[in-house]
Amino acid sequence: MAQAITVRFDDEKTITGATHFALKRIAEHLGVSQNKAVHIAINRLYDQFFPEGVAHDMPTPEELAAVRGRIPHETSTHVVDSLSKVFADPQDRIRMDASMSTFSKP
């Protein structure tokens, strides 16, 4: 069962406090939901503090560019949490997985 917490944002960005505006900008920059942006941020900090436990499943800049290149540039586009919402045809997902595997991981 997934667990949830409430995050209270500060009015100004500080070393120990974040603003909702900052989260929105990060999510938009990554092309993911705000919830997914929080997960990415937590995982990056975790990986920095505990490198021995790192699971490298975060998209690289090249992978993000490949995904963004497949998203239609229509005004009705929106950010989604799952590639299955973008690639509804299973064959498209298989092709995307195959192309993603060609990128080198750090």
Number of helices: 5
List the secondary-structure elements in sequence, H or E.
Answer: HHHHH
Low-confidence stretches: none
Helix content: 40-55%
Using DSSP, what is the number of strands?
A: 0
- CA radius of gyration is 16 Å
Q: Which class do the helix and strand fractions yield?
A: mainly alpha
**Count of the domains:** 1
Largest sheet: none
Shape, principal axes of CA atoms: globular
Mean pLDDT: 78
N- and C-termini, Cα separation? 32 Å
Strand content: under 5%
Q: Descriptors for this entry?
A:
single chain, 106 residues
Can you give a write-up of this model?
- The structure is a single chain.
- The protein has 106 residues and is mostly helical.
- The chain has one domain (20-101).
- It contains 5 helices and no strands.
- The longest helix has 16 residues, at 34-49.
- The relative contact order is 0.10.
